[in-house]
Amino acid sequence: MKISYQWLNQLITLPEAPEEVGKILTGTGLEVEGISRIETIPGGLEGVVIGEVLTCEKHPDADKLSLTTVDAGQEAPLSIVCGAPNVRAGQKVVVALVGATLHPTSGESFVIKKAKIRGAASEGMICAEDEIGLGTSHAGVMVLDTDLPNGTPAVKYFGLEADYQIEIGLTPNRADAASHLGVARDLKAVLNRPVQWPSLEAFRVDNRNLPIGVVVENPEAAPRYTGLTIDGLTVGESPDWLKRRLRAIGLNPINNVVDVTNYVLHELGQPLHAFDADWITGETVVVRTVAEGTPFVTLDGVERKLAATDLMICNAEEPMCIGGVFGGASSGVTRQTTRIFLESACFNPAWIRRTAQHHGLKTDASFRFERGTDPNLPVVALKRAALLIQEVAGGTVSSDIVDLYPDPIGDRSVPVRYKNVDRLIGIRIERAEITRILESLDIRVSDATDDGFTALVPPYRVDVEREADVIEEILRIYGLDNVPLSDHLASDFLSEFPETDPDRLQERVSQLLAAGGFFETLTNSLTRPAYHEAIRPTLPNADVQLLNPLSEELSVMRQTLLFSGLETLVYNLNRRQKDLKIFEFGKSYGRQGERFIERRHLGLWMTGNVQSESWFGKSEPVTYHDLAGAVQRILTSMRVKPTESQPADPALFQYGLILSVNKKPVVTLGLVRRNLARLVELKQPVFFADFDWQYLLRLYNGKVEFAEVPRFPEVRRDLSLVLDRTVSYEQISRLAYQTERKLLRDLNVFDVYEGENLGAGKKSYSVSFTLQDPGQTLNDTVIDKTMNRLMSAFERELGAVIRK
Predict the structure, then answer these.
(1) How would you classify residue 605: left for phi > 0, otherwise alpha for psi between -120 and 50, otherwise beta?
(2) Do 274 and 375 have their domain in common?
(3) What is the longest distance spanned by two Cα atoms in the chain?
(4) How do strand 213-216 and strand 284-288 relate by DSSP bridges?
(5) Whether residues 683 and 746 fall in one domain
(6) CATH number for the domain that contains residue 787
(7) Is the same domain home to 739 and 680?
(8) CATH code of the domain containing 586
(9) Domain count of the chain?
(10) 3-state secondary structure of 356
């Protein structure tokens, strides 16, 4: 949520700097995640002031230049050479001091420097409006009508003071703080200063020429519904002050009427909606549901099929708006609108949440209605918006306020005992201070005794329901930092300190991958159900579904890292980054009955070329073996050697392997199937490896074994084996080590050949064998016996033909 510092200053006086306000808010639980400076025009007119021309005479050596002296609030008047034809003595003007950077409406910015112009010294610049970015006119200097003292910053005259955007990480329970008023309430409690509510004294009903009735058929879904009409307004562009306020919190102005509804929403926290009154047939607004599947076109031009549980704002014939969520395309305010019906309501959070989730719509209005709004605020917001609309768009209030509120919602009574306040906070707070804090938060203290009291909580504080909630309110305003730690604070515990540090191992593997050109990513654990449906037979567990998802596309917890990485690849490929190597440490989630399964994984993805094009090397596409090399480096770093391998699941991979230790998979790698890549619109081949990181950590052995460097040389012998195509290298390796356990140190395939001359279904492996005896030099007799034993085993067990 974004808050404007200057806007906040209208509601509560804040001599504190924005950074100090941020600290105060964070201390109350409204965590400030960032503060950024907002400038209406580039540079914020820094170094530009109001000045007065004291003298003005023609330059002796230039007909179009004038020599002036200007009082700009400095120690002495400034000598300024000016080329404007309209400069005169006695004028109030805009002066850019030496050192100021100007950002003109067109052209490059420039810095004001001391200069000599035709032999005359110039110590600043008298500005035209285009030279400081305020307009396009360059006819002459700006002449001001003001009594402000000389030296006053120009931003004060133009009302362009820099603003600061305060970004708050609003927690879901603090719906009451989703506005400038809500934030001001917390500051009021901490700083003990009053909140200055917008004045509504000027509101009046001008006439009753445009009465529109309201019928609420479902009071459960709409406990309170209010509205009024305004006639004779002119829809157009909003004034600068209103546009600045909205832009300061990241909103784009639309038109003066819609901008006012957005302004009041973010000022008071009460959503409003303006209907073009010409679309209200029958001069009646009906709040009701419609038939399942009814088509409805929303403001974004999308036709949506309504659910039977969607609360709709209708006219006498058809729906006009999805209540509390999104307006309709036809009934909205346009440049042709001259009269409106202004709605301000309190909707049932459950109804709005269900509708927003059904349609995948998240709007500023639904955000607030889903969490609960103040049922006492609709009429206040309605009057505030009506006054502002009249200010910026004209018109007259042409009806009485309709206010349907059959069952008023009262304050919530919460009994509180002082002993529990002291126990949970850890210190005794003065009872008078407790009362002050609560009443500053609009929580009235009633029936107070020496033992406790009853807290009367206003309905807009939907999160304060229990005694512990009231105590939390006391503590967050009193201040966590004001609760001292006891001198005798101690903690006794027993803990294991295993030799394996998972964080260090993860850091080591991360550095290994980064050194190999991989980039680390961090993706969302929420994913699309469609991904899981595409690989459902391969998933070991049921999906973990969110009860209240943000959208349909983020409604389940992922069971694999595969698609998270594919989405990251697509994002980068769409930005012309085609050669990618990424990795992520993340979790998968599943459910078995009532039990939830959570495991840590390491995922690797490779696509494009091994390296970018370069003058000193040819660019080659990534292959399976590039990925396998990265996998092997990780396994070696973790001192893990797979003992078995088998083909990867063909539902996930076009080809690949599952490497296991003790018959349990530790990593699966291969080429992702094309149909899975197409789910994220990925068109180029992708290689993926999935490590069971938890199992890999269990296998890690931190002990390092040392051995004497062999004193005797190793010997290499090569064999060419013709085998059935179905025989894998894994079978050759396993059989070789089983046959020769003492001397065989290593073997490696350095060539694979398939051709017609070998026969159908045959292939040829060229394999090197490294032999070494740590106790003596090998002689030819021992070497030959060893190789003959290996050849016999290959011929007997694998049906190999030895090519000699």
Answers:
(1) beta
(2) yes
(3) 117
(4) parallel
(5) no
(6) 3.30.70.380
(7) no
(8) 3.30.930.10
(9) 6
(10) helix
SS3 59: strand
Domain containing 354 equals: 213-404
Q: Which amino acid is at 711?
A: R
* Sheet bearing 519-520, strands edge to edge: 519-520, 580-592, 595-607, 686-692, 664-672, 653-661, 644-647
- In this structure, the answer to whether residues 518 and 663 fall within a common structural domain is yes
Please choose, from the candidates 291, 320, 308, the residue with its C-alpha nearest in 3D space to the C-alpha of residue 355: 308
Q: Please write the tens of the pLDDT for every residue from 487-511.
A: 776 655 555 545 678 898 999 999 9
Which of 321, 301, 299 is CA-nearest to residue 311? 321
Query: For residue 685, is pLDDT > 90?
Result: yes
In a domain? residue 202: no
Listed residue (29, 500, 469, 97) closest to 457, CA to CA: 469
Does 287 map to a domain?
Answer: yes
Q: Report if residue 198 sits inside a domain.
A: no
Condensed to tens digits (0 to 9), the pLDDT of residues 293-322 reads 999 999 989 999 999 999 999 999 999 999
- With 0.85 as the threshold, say if the pTM is over it: no
What pLDDT, on the 0 to 100 scale, is given for residue 491? 57
What pLDDT does residue 492 have? Answer: 55
| Helix ranges restricted to H, 360-400 | 364-371, 378-393
The number of residues in the chain equals 804
Looking at the fold, whether 530 and 583 belong to one and the same domain comes out as yes
3-state secondary structure of 572: helix
Gap between the Cα atoms of 163 and 143, Å rounded = 26
DSSP per-residue letters across 220-262 = TT-SEEEEEEEEEE---PPPHHHHHHHHHTTPPP--HHHHHHH
Give the CATH number of the domain where residue 125 resides. Answer: 2.40.50.140
Kindly state whether residues 379 and 269 are assigned to the same domain: yes
For the stretch 107-129, what's the b/e string if a residue is b when 16 or more beta carbons lie within 10 angstroms of its beta carbon?
eeeeebeeeebeebebbbbbbbb
Q: Distance from CA of residue 654 to its chain's centroid? A: 35
Q: Is residue 14 part of a domain?
A: yes
Q: Are 372 and 464 in contact (CB under 8 A)?
A: no
Long-range contacts of 277-280 (CB under 8 A, 24+ apart): 277/210, 277/212, 277/229, 277/231, 277/339, 277/340, 277/341, 278/337, 278/339, 279/315, 279/320, 279/330, 279/331, 280/212, 280/315, 280/316, 280/320, 280/331, 280/341
CATH number at residue 473: 3.30.56.10
- Does one domain contain both 177 and 154? no
Q: What is the CA radius of gyration of the chain?
A: 38
Q: C-alpha angle 416/421/426, rounded to 5°?
A: 170
Task: List the structure tokens of 657.
Answer: 């392997």
> Up-side HSE of residue 380: CA atoms within 13 Å toward CB?
14
Write out the two tokens for 324.
Answer: 């509390």
User: Which of 404, 436, 461 marks a domain boundary?
Assistant: 404
**Shared domain check, 390 and 279:** yes
End-to-end alpha-carbon separation of the chain, Å? 76
CA nearest neighbour of 2 among 178, 172, 171, 175: 178
Last residue of a domain, one of 386, 404, 422: 404
